[in-house]
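User: For my dataset I need records formatted as: sequence, then structure tokens, nothing else. Please produce one.
Assistant:
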Amino acid sequence: MRIGTHQAGPPAPGDRPEDLPVDGVWTNQMPGGWDPLALLAAHGPGALELGTAIVPTYPRHPVALATQALTTQALVGGRLTLGIGPSHAWHVTDQLGLPYTSPAAHTREYLEVLRPLLRGEHVRHGGEHFTVDIRLDQPVEPPPVLLSALGPRMLRVARDLADGVVATWCTPELVEGHLAPALGEGARIVVSAVVVLTDDPDAARAQVEESFGAASRMPAYRALLDRGGLAGVGDTAVVGSEEQVLAQLTRLRDAGATDLVLAVLGPPADRARVHEVADELRG
């Protein structure tokens, strides 16, 4: 199993993920937030995998994203893993003013354009969402592509056109019973987990729900939570003592997660402690 650490923005002075026992650094794009590929490009060459979880497909054209991804791949010495996804209607339509119809079909077509562009192929595509006739001339190794997929239709797109999935707000039961069977053998399953070291797990779950409860009301996450019989995203958090945290992370691994990306809440010392605990699962 590979263990990653979550990077929320530009690193603070002295914040070096290379000093943690991790295999990779992962970042995402929040509405109005930092650009994830630019954040990763700033790392330059090194040893750790650098992943996006995720870059929204809206409003980026697939040619623009392929160009940026290949540029980042060159700058980081071939360490990029590109996670993409269609985001949510409240962002795409309410904030950006773009239509958010048939996101699974839009994503399928997006990948049909993106993947061959990353491989250096000339893409001639005329579809419902994109018309493209171009080849990119950036001679670098194409990055693996993961898809943010939770529902059945998006999981089929991931199975057909991506190297795996990036999932969040996911329990071991959902990984084992929902994600893994839909993807089949060999797919990469990257699970982002919010972790809180605490001697009061109930209070910690309530804290996660208070901080991130808006996600519990987003249709894609709500459908996933309902599938697992969960009240909200707080029920998916990994909370408790070091021993309890290790047991919960182990269950995610045994359920089929190939990677864990840990977002640790609390003081900086807790981040280091959690990664030391998770180091037992690496390899």
